[in-house]
Amino acid sequence: MVNLLAFPGLGTVLAAKKIGYAQAAVMLVGFFTATGYMCWIIYIQIKLLFDMGTSAQEFGEKRFEHWWIGVVGFALCLIAWIWSLFSSIQLLKENPKDTPLATVPPGLP
């Protein structure tokens, strides 16, 4: 179950719920948007750092010119994780108490 926390939607898909595909899609869009933004920021930082004609004020202005792209990417990732949490709670509530998932294996406290 811990491995499923890395990719929201996968546990819901494995539980045969089609809504998990939407969760996974939101997570992928958010992840690639946030990662692309971080790579772009690093590229801009290096480019501006080695441009000797850039003033300190211009450097400060251009660094985070498109900050909203990163915010959208991270927000989509957060939404996918929260959505996945609620889906997991719903799946646990739907699970009958007498199934093997609800019982503690022998030897565990």
What can you tell me about this protein's structure?
The chain has 109 residues and is an all-alpha fold. It has one domain. 67% of the residues lie in helices and 0% in strands. Helix 2 runs antiparallel to helix 4. The longest helix has 32 residues, at 19-50. It is rod-shaped, with a radius of gyration of 21 Å. The two termini are 18 Å apart.
Q: Mind telling me the C-alpha Rg?
A: 21 Å
How much helicity do the residues have? 55-70%
Number of domains: 1
Major sheet, described briefly?
none
Order of helices and strands: HHHH
User: What is the beta-strand fraction?
Assistant: under 5%
Task: Map the helices and strands.
Blueprint: H1 10-14, H2 19-50, H3 56-63, H4 67-94
Helix pairs in contact: 2-4
Summarize the structure.
With 109 residues, the protein is mostly helical. It has 4 helices and no strands. The chain has helices at residues 10-14, 19-50, 56-63, 67-94.
What keywords describe this structure?
single chain, 109 residues, mainly alpha, 4 helices
